[in-house]
Input
Amino acid sequence: MSLQIDLTNKTALVSGSSQGIGASIARDFAQAGSRVILLARNEEKLAALCDELNKNHPLSGNLHHHFIAADLAQKEGVAKVISFLEEVKEGIDIYVSNAGGPPGGALSEAKEEEFVAAFQMHLMSSHAIVKSILPSMKERRFGRIINIISTSVKAPLPGLGVSNTLRGAMSSWGKTLASEVASYEITVNSILPGATKTDRLEGILKKKAAAQNLSFAEAEKKYLAEIPQKRFAEPEEVAHLASFLASGLASYINGVAICVDGGRTPCL
Output
């Protein structure tokens, strides 16, 4: 028997979906039959991806893929999202919480406002959105909440003090929520990507190169040496796991955090 990811008749909200991992997840979901609501700040990129999805993965009837341009770092942006979701009669079946990590830096030098901004962008916005969609999930007795976090949940990464702190909080939030909503057949899981070919990785490598007086190629080679598979992940490789966790095939997988890192994380 072959297994097939089927998200037909599901509606998914994917944040951070204008590029990188989020965009790949949106494409995967649409290909599996889901209606996708894209969410990010860049309206131009969102519109282009939305047009792509509607062209390549059309939905039946009057349903279409949509997008919301909003900044989750601002309370007004979160309110805009929640207002939009109230107009989605079908309700949200799948929510992917995904956003770029906070700027790097030593924890001992981090400013209070850096923590406040990071927690608003990630934890507080996700919490507000989830609270708004949980009632309909409970009513339908189906829901998938997927957090895209970082391997720093299992092993903190040097030079990412605020990010390490935030990612740990997001993981604990997800694990706690998983237990609270499990009886409604709602699952909450976290995906922990390692080094993935995104704009964020390119920025990290440029900073490493500058800090260590290396060329970009030298910094990249040094980073790759830490990864057992000796390559970076493609965004699609993270997206495939998200699609599986969103489907009925993963109905009894709940409250876990799964690394997609080529074996780099040193702990079990």
About this structure: Helices lie at 20-31, 43-56, 75-86, 112-140, 161-181, 199-211, 216-224, 235-246. The chain has a mean pLDDT of 95. The domain at 11-196+234-260 is CATH 3.40.50.720 (Rossmann fold).
